[in-house]
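Write out the 3D structure for:
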Amino acid sequence: MRLDPSAGSSSPAQLPRHPAAPWGTIDTRPERDGYVTASWQRCLNDYGLRPEGQHEAPRVAHAVLTDTLEANNRLLRIARMEMNSFYAQIANSHNTLVLTDAQGLVLEQVCDPLQARTFESQGLAPGFIWDERHTGTNGPGTCLQERRAITVYRDEHFFSNFGNLSCSAAPIWGPDGNLMAVLDASCFDCTDSRQSQLHTMLLVSMSARVIEQIYFASSFKDSWIVRFHSRAELVGMVHDAMLAVDEEGRVRGADSLAAGLLGRDQPSDLIGRSVSELFALSPAKFFGQARSMPCRIWAAQGQGVGSRHFLSVRPPHRPLRVAMHGRVDETAAVTNLPRPGATSPANPPSDMADYPVESERDPVMAYNIWCAEQVMNKGINILLQGATGTGKGTLAKAIHLRSSRGKKSFIAMCCAAIPETLAESELFGYEAGAFTGARSGGMRGKIVASHGGTLFLDEIGDMPLPLQARLLHVLEEKEVTPLGSTRPIAVDLHVISASNHNLQELIEKGLFREDLYYRLNGITLTLPPLRERQDLEELIVGVSRSENEDRPAPIESAAMDCLLAYAWPGNIRELRNVVRTALALASDGTLRLEQLPWSLRRNASAAALPPMEPGSGWHASVTAPRQVAGMRPATSDGDDDGVGHADISALLQRHRWNISHAAEDLGISRNTLYRRMHRLGILTPRTK
């Protein structure tokens, strides 16, 4: 090995232990992983680092961090959901989760809020750089160099002041085969053995793979997504491989696992190849099987001798196109997935029409749907979290309809809307004569009514503590005893619960039972507020259709721009009310800007607004309030990055005013680009 010239001639077995050793000496004892030794060599010989003294991870300027976050917007939206889910499993282990980009810059962190300052003091927070060149041997930085999952345990860190950290990191690969990011779990003052950290590394690797899979699928929304493995039970899991196939049966994208399973060195070796070259069946037969069995597992012979694969193929994202005033707009999109008992999987039931839960334009919702589909038929209870009006109840109904319980009852109960004295009888039922005023024949109760189906408990955080204890008993024993009865009734129960409260905070305040929380929280799905949805335009069109007797409702371009620029504090519920009223005011059935309330229109570019007359709009006065609840302040949305009017106008013209393509080129969301256009006074050709 190449060492610093100051190193002595000691044999490896005699070298002192790093980092207390003199410069240039490296501990090469057998128990050290080879990548640790290789990393120390790079630190000494390539980067010129020295282990003594106090070293801090460098921090980039706020503007640099903001630009990088914006450029990685889609990755962050996907990763945050998985990181939150992962952290729920390790919340009491003094770990923090961090996501870095391919240069080692921390983009996101999840940790206990009480420990946030401690982790930040060590540089484990957004904006800090953890590459090897600056921070020596460490989890994210060494993972970037080794390009594989690794653990750096305590004094294996190059700098001595990081010796109290234990880090496990795994790479996240992009659809192009390049290393895109690193997911890391770091623990302070870890007292467990290094061997025990292998479990953490495996969990990190699995979460990194989930992020890869969701990102891959969202990158090829218009392609057939093939998930396959040589073992049927692993299809749809983190260990399967993924391909994106176009309508001609040729591969557009492949991940690293696909290359390995198909005997290729690199994913790029698969690009352009026909499915007939990979699975020994013609494109016609491939698509025939895929269309007849969407998302179901079927076998296909591989090209190699004795090779056999099991495939599950998801149809492409199919946008519904609606003509409006001579132009065609992309609107709501629904993936054609099978639903038990449905005669036409392409058409969701009417109660889901205003909530395209199958849309994949929004990676957070795509991740939620993917998770729900993995667990809904496996007896795992689901907890939905999100602000009021984000559609938790509609999503719960959609999950029920998609599940194997879809033909049975979906029973909903709002725990905040019923007094405690009535809630008990509503939920658990009662025998005849159980109390004064009871029905002569008694009542089954919602738990018994949902037998074999789904029980949806909305606002579960508002359930009184005595009822929580009884519900816990039902979930544990799978039986319920009605009021006034001594005979328990066996129930087959699947529970979806929802809350806009932070249940962990309620537990700390003694308002919610921790044991019940863990019974209900088989998996948590967090619904984003409407202002953060990347499929907002789809939702608007879906709502307008549902409020127009399931007929397409043309929306004027200026009106659509205004709807997209609003912050929607009331979320989907507010959107539905706004669209319903606007359509009622539309004499010819076309939703126009002047039919929207003033609180929305004031956020549009002044040049695009029609003159206001007293009594017009939804407000009797022409004078608008200075601040309207829910409206983003014009200069505080964090969108400024130095790109001005001329730059954005030129970019839009280059993309022929295709907002989606221009936003992707800028590395921002469509909603962010719309807000910038409004703020800069840039009008689309159709609104000039």
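Confidence is low (pLDDT under 50) at residues 1-31, 318-358, 604-641.
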